[in-house]
Amino acid sequence: MNYDVIIIGAGLGGLTAGAKLAKQGKKVLLIEQHNRPGGCATTFKRKNFTFEVGLHEMDGPHATDLKVRIFKDMGLNEKVTLLDVPEFYRFVNERYDVVIPHDPEQAQELLIARFPGDEAGIKTYFHYLLNYRKVLPELKLTPGKSVGEFLDQHISNNDLKLILLGNLGYFHDDPYSISLQYYLIAQGSYYGGKASFVKGGSQRLSDALAEIIKENGGTVKLQQRVSSILFENNLPIGVRYQKTKGESDTAIDVFGKEIVVNASVPDLASKLLPAQQVGDLSSEIGKMKIGASLLTVYFGFKKPLKDIGNKYYSTFIFDPSVKDQSDIVKNNHAGFSARSFTLVDYSQVNASLAPEGKSVGAVCCIDYLADWENLDRQSYLKKKNEVAEAIINRCDKLIPGFRDALEYVEVGTPLTVKRYTLNPEGAVYGFAQNPNKPTDYLTKLPVNIHIASAWGKFGGGFSGAIFSGYMAAMDILRKR
């Protein structure tokens, strides 16, 4: 079979690229190894609960948000409902309990009232966030600056720095090794005035994009894994794939003029490209660090958490041992009785993830594949149970009655992430967004191969993947 475009992987990047290209009349084939589209933008069911795999809150939509244009272009507003998240986040440690609003003016006023000695630094922080398009050209003089350095330069109170970094885990694991430029763009979008959750879970968004592909004549093949990209005269001409599971191991070759890769760039180099096509690409990506993974504990409740006193959608719990920025990365390797985490209570919005009178929630924290991948089955399950118990104990202290409200608990580890996404090290955000992160690797791709994933120039997260997919499609459409 011959196609205009073949897409490897049905994460948000691949789905967005496929939907745009199919709507523009391109003959599209999308191949996905999992049994459903979405990658990290999926849900799964246990008992009568629907659990959200990845989405806690998505920045926007707001006036300057590219997703507004993308959703309108795709007709997604008629297929999914975005719910406003009530507040940005609540931050809790033994010294402070602060609720940060999405509105930047309100957030600034609140923080100045709590930390009057840092008024000038708070104003500088928000000036940079809200004006990053003007500020970034100045920062090009010092592209190696980290968020940690920036906060140390402008803020004196260590707890204020921690509060501002409450949601750092949305992007990275260490304030001293995340690019200030990247942070300003990503965090600035959250302070655009609002954030959203997809009603019914992110699977609704992924399914809507897959539906657009099929409505416009495209093909979506699930439970099929691409084993290699085919070349002829040093040009990519198609892919070889076969069933992910099952008795048949027959490989199928299909051909296309353009290849969109919604998979990790390290896997592209090590598994999909012929050896003679890998050299420069491997050399460039060898200079970069792969980002952290996540651990998630999924909770099904007999009743909404708001009925037992919880008032907030997302609460970031920082352990008392985290005294300043330098403690954050150390704490990310601590035991789960002390590791900082985020609690998301989906009962605070009309999420449609549980039956009437029940609710779901999740605890999420930075984690690393190395702590899980060499365990035998028994040790792995034992550790998961220990993690769940430690987290439940801490949540019960935060919200009395939490344990009694529980009906179902499940733990997803970095190994789970790797198994379902195939991302090396279970990375959820692609390459770590370190200061001075190279971008030359994108110029080393073979002709007609495009990256549409968190491993591209826009980075991770739902918005980054959507932007990456849409711009990959636009690059193809602009070709003559």
How would you describe the overall organization of this protein?
This protein is of the alpha/beta class. The protein has a domain at 2-42 and 201-288 and 432-478: FAD/NAD(P)-binding domain, CATH 3.50.50. Helices cover 34% and strands 22% of the residues. The chain has helices at 12-23, 66-74, 104-114, 119-130, 132-139, 147-154, 158-164, 180-190, 202-215, 265-272, 279-285, 326-331, 377-398, 402-405, 414-421, 461-478, and strands at 2-8, 28-31, 43-46, 49-52, 58-59, 82-84, 89-92, 97-100, 195-198, 219-221, 224-232, 235-243, 252-261, 293-301, 314-317, 341-345, 359-367, 406-412, 449-451. The strands form 4 sheets. Strands 1, 2, 10, 11, 12, 13 and 19 form a 7-stranded mixed β-sheet that branches. A 7-stranded mixed β-sheet has the order 8-7-15-16-17-14-18. A 3-stranded antiparallel β-sheet has the order 5-9-6. Helix 5 (132-139) runs antiparallel to helix 8. The model has no long low-confidence stretch (mean pLDDT 95).
Strand content range: 15-25%
CATH superfamily of the domain at 2-42 and 201-288 and 432-478: FAD/NAD(P)-binding domain
Give the overall shape. globular
What is the mean predicted local confidence, pLDDT? Answer: 95
Quickly count the helices. Answer: 16
What CATH architecture label of the domain at 2-42 and 201-288 and 432-478 applies? 3-Layer(bba) Sandwich
**Secondary-structure class:** alpha/beta
Tell me how many strands there are: 19
CATH class call of the domain at 2-42 and 201-288 and 432-478: Alpha Beta
Poorly predicted segments = none
Distance between the terminal alpha carbons, to the nearest Å? 23 Å
The major β-sheet equals: 7 strands, mixed
